[in-house]
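lol forgot to send this yesterday, sorry. struct tokens for the thing we talked abt
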């Protein structure tokens, strides 16, 4: 308790939180959370496996899908240890540097996911608007370069986050709002000025998620313009149907992300429950829903899944 009554440059640990008002039900809440983690990791692993093992899926759109699945696994793995510890064992402590490391990986994988969604939008754009240049523009080496660029951008943009937080003094309140470490949540516990952190956080959002979302919208505007030029209604619907899975995935990722960013900036005096709900939707549901969306909406993935499970049951 003496630690809580004095000022510290770096506290030895933070205290994580579950869901306010439902502490008595945490053990029951851990059951659906565990199911979601298993679904996310298993579902995305299956997507990666079938893309790797099915020669007919060795095309740019499915390679990008497997990279998206790998990113989803990373997002799930980043939050899994602390979330399950809080809800199953009520173990709330997380070491200071461990918290910064978890925060770095959460935000890095989020940035990588955004980059993968942009790459997939570019893939759809090239396939529909410039089909003759499709195979020459998206060669295996170029896809590899795009994947490495997504990783490099995520790491480069997120490294300053823990470095800046290490320069801040923390005192008294060491209780975080979530069951994982999230940059805006850790930042608000600092006693000193967080102006630099706030400005960098805003620049970060604009340079990664903001730029990606603008180019995704632009890609689909050009796709829509191309589709409207197709004479037959059946042709238009067929082309648009190829984009449905990606559009749903974009909405699943960006809608809670944008809502969470807005609430953190304009809803600071409101109940913490919207923050917690949206952050959980963003980090937990996205990796779960992405493989389900592609499994249901993409015929080639459905067929490959059918062959996989048919072989397993023999």
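and heres what i got for the seq, position by position
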């Amino acid at each position: 308790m003496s630690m809580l009554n004095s000022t510290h440059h770096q506290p030895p640990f933070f205290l994580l939180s579950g869901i306010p008002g439902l502490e008595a039900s945490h053990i029951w809440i851990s059951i659906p959370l565990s199911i979601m983690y298993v679904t996310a990791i298993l579902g995305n692993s299956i997507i990666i496996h079938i893309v790797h093992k099915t020669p007919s899926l060795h095309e740019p759109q499915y390679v990008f899908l497997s990279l998206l699945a790998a990113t989803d696994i990373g997002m799930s793995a980043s939050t899994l240890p602390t979330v399950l510890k809080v809800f199953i064992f009520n173990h709330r402590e997380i070491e200071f540097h461990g918290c910064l490391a978890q925060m770095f990986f959460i935000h890095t994988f989020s940035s990588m996911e955004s980059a993968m969604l942009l790459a997939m939008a570019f893939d759809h754009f090239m396939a529909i608007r410039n089909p003759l240049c499709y195979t020459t523009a998206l060669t295996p080496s170029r896809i590899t370069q795009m994947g490495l660029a997504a990783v490099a951008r995520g790491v480069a943009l997120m490294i300053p986050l823990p470095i800046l937080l290490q320069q801040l003094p923390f005192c008294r309140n060491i209780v975080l709002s979530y069951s994982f470490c999230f940059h805006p949540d850790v930042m608000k516990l600092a006693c000193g000025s967080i102006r630099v952190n706030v400005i960098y956080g805003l620049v970060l959002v604009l340079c990664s998620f903001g730029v990606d979302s603008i180019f995704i919208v632009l890609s689909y505007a050009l796709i829509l313009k191309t589709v409207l030029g197709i004479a037959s209604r059946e042709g238009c619907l067929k082309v648009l149907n190829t984009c449905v899975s990606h559009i749903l995935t974009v909405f699943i990722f960006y809608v809670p992300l944008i809502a969470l960013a807005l609430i953190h900036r304009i809803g600071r005096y409101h109940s913490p429950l919207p923050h917690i709900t949206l952050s959980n939707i963003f980090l937990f549901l996205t990796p779960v829903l992405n493989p389900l969306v592609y499994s249901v909406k993409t015929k080639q993935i459905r067929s490959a899944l059918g062959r996989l499970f048919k072989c397993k049951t023999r």
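The chain has twelve helices and four strands. anyway ping me if u want another try
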